[in-house]
Hints:
By secondary structure, the protein is mainly beta. Helix content is 5%, strand content 29%.
Amino acid sequence: VHTNIDSAVYDITVASDENTPYHHYFNGPHSIPGAHCPNCDRPLLCFLTLDTRDPRLCMMDMPFSALPLLYCWTCTISFEEFYYRLNADGGGVTLLKYGNGIDANRNFAPDEVPLYFPLSPVELIKMTDEQVAFMDRLRNGETVFAAGDWVDTPTHQLGGLPHLCQGWDDPMFICPMCGKEMPFLAAITDQVFPADIFESALIDIVYSYCADCHVVGAIHQCD
Ligand SMILES: [Zn+2]
Ligand SMILES: [Zn+2]
């Protein structure tokens, strides 16, 4: 499976300096046409906005300046695969497929989750070869390591192959428009939210992206 990103793996982390050259950011309000939850009748949360001018993303030929990674905590929208397309005129998104409805398995009631979390600029930190090699060992199911083998791995990951909190089975995304397998784009964990509502679980939201169709796929993984 190829990736959209240049061959590197990046840690997506809160920027130490707000004067970053590209405008990538976690959270914040948005006014993206179509980015509205059909189950909850409220705006979808935008976890991460990627600035497509950044050459590291290999998305500079896209007709959009920003790629939003959307989600909803208050329904089951991503308990099944959730797909949306970025409209070619740069005017918002069209939801293609989603978990339909609100049931007892949803994460939170609407009054527990704000309409958006505060915006924070992020920077992309390239993982070293040593870190990528260690992530590969974890992905391959290795559990026994020498003390000196441990290196930091990304909390939120862009590019490469997904290193997930919830086990090592990669979710498979098939683009609903072209029928091809969609490359992994990013994995965002619940650590992205400056809120104490995520006490007990380790949650990964896994995103994939079909560059041909401008379709984003997302799925929620939680124990
Ligand atoms: Zn919802
Ligand atoms: Zn496609």
